[in-house]
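FW: tagging you since you asked about this chain on Friday. Here's the raw sequence from the shared folder, copied in full. Didn't touch anything.
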Amino acid sequence: MVLWTRLAPSPREPLGGLPDAPIAVRWELAEDEGFSIERRTGVVWARPEHAHSVHAEVTGLPSDRRYFYRFHAGEATSPLGRTRTAPAPEAGVGRLRIALASCQHYEQGEFTLHREIAARDLDLVLFVGDYLYESSNARLRIRSHEAAQPTTLDGFRQRHVTYKLDAALRAAHAAHPWVLTWDDHEVENDYAADASRDPSRSAAAFLQLRAAAYKAYFEHMPVSPHSAPVGAQMRIHAHYRWGRLADLWTLDNRQYRSLQPCNAPGVAGGRILTQCETLEDESATVFGAAQEHWIGEQLAASRRGWRLLAQGTQIAPSGIDTPLGRSLFSDGWDGYPKARARLMRAIAGQPQGNVVCLGGDVHRHVAARLRADVGDPRSPVVASEFATSSLTSRGLSDTATALMRSSNPDLLHARSDERGYVLLDLTPQRLHAELRATAFPVVADARVHTQAAFVVEAGRAGPQRDA
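HL: got it, structure written out here
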């Protein structure tokens, strides 16, 4: 369990208006709001080199318990937060409830969906990338970042401050524990390892920018203190257990990936392709060789009922058939078909029906079948996939999404016109996915509805529409 906060009485000022010195912070944890039942407490130091952020790792707690927590620093006491411990690794567990979310562009909508997430009875929030956006689009703006695109540590810290000052987002953080991975906009759109979209930015210069972005991300997220970045390196992929019910892995599809296909050497960026020889490059990778090996071993060793793979984007094919050939977007898994084939081989070795891939990035709700040989309708279905729509960020046109559906029969559902998140409810017998949605742009009093719902039965791969 990690309890996170940041001391910043004047968040827009350097160091949040605090002196350049460590500050003692006392944390409290208990099973009741009055902090009298099973109360625990400890002291950690909020240090200026980490923007006076706190990542208090609490160990030795009973399994499968819910807690309240708060912080004290000087005369100040934080609002209450709520969290919980996971069930013991070998415990029989009847249920796991997750809100799957991604892509919250501050300028393109209100964070109204976070209020619904905060009010839900959940075990955790699973956020799969684009927690913030470095860029702006004046045409779609309903509120402003009020700052230029960040390139320095202070710039990235200020961008995180803008997001954390949103009351709805803070409410969702206070209500539930979060499990996170990132995508690209936490640093720069479509970056690939040490390569920037900007051809004038060298790898060394981009790694400086990435180091600043990773450090600010660590300072502002409820992640383990052991994941603190070293320069431009930060491990975010991880493994979580939920009793005997589920294994959950978060994967990093940015830090270790190879360059997008058919790009100029050293220049990142996704684009639409119809022909490209390097699509057949066997060495191309999304996860990097070490992470690929790690997740393969993890899958092979798993004996839990459900295996949840969470990463940044949609795995199922989304290319569009045209008279000139198949058109695809090179930054997604379609741009890395050999890497996707290796992942599918690793998944195909598992008990059929127990692997569910979870993603975001594409700004559309997706339910899909994943086959051992992706794109071959004769190949067996070996996994299910759900990609969440964006919380605020604009999606593709209805026309483009309709062409995508007609070109990919394993896309059982794909809609880009609404924003939303996915509510997952797992039991030993089935996984239920409710695609919650609202209109774009998201306004403060937005009405949220269920766009569609799907069920994955244990032992049977592939989502089934829940009538």
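FW: Residues 20 and 138 are 37 Å apart (CA to CA).
HL: agreed, and Helices lie at 112-119, 153-164, 167-175, 203-219, 289-301, 337-348, 398-407.
FW: great, closing this out.
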